[in-house]
């Protein structure tokens, strides 16, 4: 059991939508033997007291759960509907079989997309008995609670697509963000830890690049920052880390921190 005064964060995956290594790529980072250069699709697990939340459920979810080995999951929060954040939802079945309906929290638009892609999960008639069961909780840009823990959504934009980040106490997690309004940045003051995407050095239409992510960190001023949703084009983990300011770190798969 986690001390109720602390949060334990496990980085389940820290890669971009293709993961690292990219299939068939001969890029040096994809050929790296450093385990920190091998990244599954992006996701985190947040533990507090006897509660376990997962943010996003991508195509590597099964592998991530086998690796992290949580015995239960109390809720899954979705940042947005893209496949690298949702495509693993069928693999929640073992948890559903043991626990019953899995609570999921997402914007209404995200749920509507999941109903299209995974119609059998949300079916109410002629339902396949082996499908996972979910309990849908629609969220808006206002605080909500899961098991007495207040969670504050942070709205950003992934090109023109609205996405949610989430603040748990003095920890905040944002991924796939390109722009964020001042009033949303104001929700991120007085953080102990900020996790935010930093895709690569070059500009990208829908993701913060390294320079933009560092600029945002300088505005928010968290005590520590971890970059995630990392492309092989950012470079070798150890070399990039050497260039980062003090208290700014590259996250890597299976990294655990306590707040």
Keywords:
alpha/beta, seven-stranded mixed sheet, about 20% helix
Write the layout of secondary structure elements.
Blueprint lengths: L7 E6 L29 E6 L2 E5 L5 H8 L6 E3 L5 H4 L6 H7 L2 E5 L1 H10 L1 H4 L11 E5 L5 E3 L2 E10 L2 E8 L2 E4 L7 H4 L7 E5 L12 H11 L3 E5 L8 H7 L4 E3 L5 E3 L1
Parallel strand pairs: 3-4, 4-5, 5-6, 10-11, 11-12, 12-13
Antiparallel strand pairs: 1-2, 1-14, 2-3, 7-8, 8-9, 9-10
Task: Describe, in plain words, how this protein is organized in 3D.
The chain is an alpha/beta fold. The protein is built from 8 helices and 14 strands. The strands form 2 sheets. A 7-stranded mixed beta sheet has the order 6-5-4-3-2-1-14. The chain is globular, with a radius of gyration of 18 Å. The two termini are 15 Å apart.
Distance between the termini: 15 Å
Shape: globular
The portion of residues forming beta strands comes to: 25-35%
pLDDT under 50 segments (min length 5)?
none
Mean pLDDT, to the nearest integer, reads 97
CATH class descriptor name: Alpha Beta
Question: Widest sheet: strand order?
Answer: 6-5-4-3-2-1-14
According to DSSP, the number of beta strands is 14
Give a quick precis of the structure.
With 259 residues, this protein is α/β, with parallel strands linked by helices. The protein has 8 helices and 14 strands. The strands form 2 sheets. The chain has a 7-stranded mixed beta sheet. A 7-stranded mixed beta sheet has the order 7-8-9-10-11-12-13.
């Amino acid at each position: 059991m986690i001390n109720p005064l602390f949060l334990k964060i496990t980085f389940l995956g820290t890669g971009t939508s293709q993961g690292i290594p990219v299939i068939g790529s001969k890029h040096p980072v994809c050929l790296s033997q450093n385990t920190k250069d091998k990244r599954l699709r992006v996701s985190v697990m947040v533990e507090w007291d006897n509660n376990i939340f997962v943010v996003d459920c991508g195509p590597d979810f099964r592998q991530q759960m086998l690796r992290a080995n949580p015995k239960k999951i109390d809720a899954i929060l979705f940042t947005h509907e893209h496949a690298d954040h949702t495509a693993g939802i069928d693999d929640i079945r073992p948890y559903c079989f043991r626990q019953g309906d899995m609570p999921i929290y997402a914007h209404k638009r995200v749920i509507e997309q999941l109903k299209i892609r995974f119609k059998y999960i949300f079916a109410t008639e002629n339902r396949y008995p082996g499908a996972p069961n979910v309990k849908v909780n629609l969220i808006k840009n206002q605080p909500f609670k899961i098991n007495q823990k207040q969670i504050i959504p942070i709205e950003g934009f992934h090109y023109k697509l609205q996405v949610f980040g989430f603040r748990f106490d003095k920890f905040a997690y944002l991924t796939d963000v390109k722009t964020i309004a001042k009033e949303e940045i104001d929700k991120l003051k007085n953080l102990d830890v900020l996790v935010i995407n930093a895709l690569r050095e070059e500009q990208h239409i829908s993701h913060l690049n390294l320079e933009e992510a560092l600029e945002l960190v300088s505005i928010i001023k968290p005590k520590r920052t971890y970059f995630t949703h990392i492309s092989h084009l950012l470079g070798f983990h150890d070399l990039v880390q050497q260039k980062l300011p003090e208290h700014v770190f590259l996250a890597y798969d299976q990294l655990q921190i306590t707040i």
